[in-house]
Amino acid sequence: MAKHAFLLLSSPETPGKFANPLTYARQLDEAGHQVAVYFDGAATYWFDGIEDHPEPAVRAYEDAKELGLIAGVCDHCATFKGVADAVEAEGFEIQGTEHAPDVAGLVDDGYELHIV
Fold this sequence. Notes:
By secondary structure, the chain is α/β, with parallel strands linked by helices. It has a single domain, classed as Hypothetical Protein Ychn, Chain: A, CATH 3.40.1260.10. It has 5 helices and 4 strands; from the N terminus they run E-H-E-H-E-H-H-H-E. It has a 4-stranded parallel beta sheet. Strand 1 (3-8), helix 1 and strand 2 form a beta-alpha-beta unit. Helix 1 (16-30) packs parallel to helix 2. The longest helix is centred in the first third of the chain and has 15 residues, at 16-30. The protein is globular.
């Protein structure tokens, strides 16, 4: 099976750009593929007021989180966008201000990148 890494960069104002890739990640996982989802850039704003986002996007996020598909949140982006506390409230660690993920490392590990 293949390895897929989804890098979510879109702001929460475009909920389809969250719901769709998270749904695709879940489908790939259910089919036996290895999947990792990362929140980066404006996508880190997702964690600020999750309950206020449209239901389909929230459901897709909750499914991906429950399945353990969310591999990380960019520390740098979450910190400098002022959402680190909201990210940590969702159970994800923010450790400093390093930019993540390491896309070169993901590619070296055989992941196909999907940037949304």
